[in-house]
Amino acid sequence: MHVRTVINPRRFLTLLLAGLALAAAPALATAQVSLPTVVELAQQNSTQVRIAQADVLKAAAQLAQSRDAFVPSISFGSGLPAFPEVGFTGSLPTIWDSTVQSMVFSLPQIQNIHAARAGMQAAHAALMDAREQVALDASTAYIELDTIDTELAAARQQDEFAARLVTIEQQRAEAGVDPLANLLQAQLTAAQLKLKRLHLETRAATLSKQLATLTGLPDGSISPDHASIPEIPAVRAGETARTLAGVESAQDAARAKAFIAKGDRQHLWLLPEFGFGAQYNRNTTLLNDIESYFNPLKPFPANNFSTGFSIRVPVIDAGLHAKAKESAADALRAKVEAEQAQKQDEIEVARLTGTLRELDAEAEVAGLKQQIAGEQLKAVLSQLELGNGTGTGPGAPPQLSPTAEQQARIDERQNYIDSIDAGLDLARARLNLLRALGHMQDWLDELHTK
Q1: What 3-state DSSP class applies to 269?
Q2: pLDDT tens across 336-364, in order?
Q3: Where would you tag: which of 67, 197, 331, 349 has the fewest CB atoms within 10 A of its CB?
Q4: Topology annotation, domain 9-71+106-271+313-389+397-448
């Protein structure tokens, strides 16, 4: 597998300008940043992605190194004497020498090349998995922050309605119309709504910090743009699943270990390994009397050149036997880990599918509750404006008090918050299922078209 990353110059320039503008802004200044921009900045800033990119470079270098065993290596050296030599030293006095060496044939080395290629594929798959995970984290945080911003607007409206409710009950309690318990209940409702709003504000601040950490932008500088969030596909477990990038990486790593184990076993098959070598020496008679040890009729040669093939057959090597057992155990472990990753992904798909069905039903219930609360609010407002229309005789329902309007408005806003909160849970589950089914890249491609 060869994965090539293509950078769109226009998109890169847009990201660069957006990053510089936000980085130069004060820490408290906010600006609308689209979801695609947040995802790409998070992928560029992620330490996980950068580590995976370094692993890809390392794997490519290992593949090149395994291939280069068959590429001749050339070296030069010199052995020029520094002082006059005395007697016969046993080594030729050379001004310089050159050596060429290469492997010609080796089955274990071929397996090492296959292993390195599988390792590079595993590194590419791990890089894709890291990018998808960062995209999932950034998308989830961004969508949740956008949802909480909407919930906060509704929560602040609830605070206003609760404050009016407390004021009305205080006036009615002072006038002796309602008991003090009603005023205390109204104050309790206001305090509970305030606590919920504070929870939302705390969560929004946490998400803002999380997005700032993911993207590298200043804390609090990101304001979600709801229009940049595409609709999340309603995927199901029955749809065609693709191999998850993380599982694919584990499978490729297992194949690499298997190739290494096969190569180590081939060392034990008494198969010869062939090598080639060539050497050239430029000898000298300076500062030595080497010619006195040679036949005067045949002067000491200045130029010397030799070539040859080497053949190596491992007959008895206990270390190779131990190494073969070790690599076989590593291959078995990697295979089991790949199978475990596949099973865990299948379990996650099954869990998310069941959760998704429940969240679908919860979202439907929350939507119906919101509609009912809206109709009840309309009915309350109509009764307050026109009266209940049933008279004041015995058995007639009592006329609604002004507190009923504020309570109905509070209930309607609460059901609205519950509805969009259920939608958030549904969106989060859909995104996780997209990733578990291997369709996260489809989501990223859709983001880039926004």
Answers
A1: helix
A2: 999 999 999 888 888 888 888 888 888 88
A3: 67
A4: Outer membrane efflux proteins (OEP) (1.20.1600)
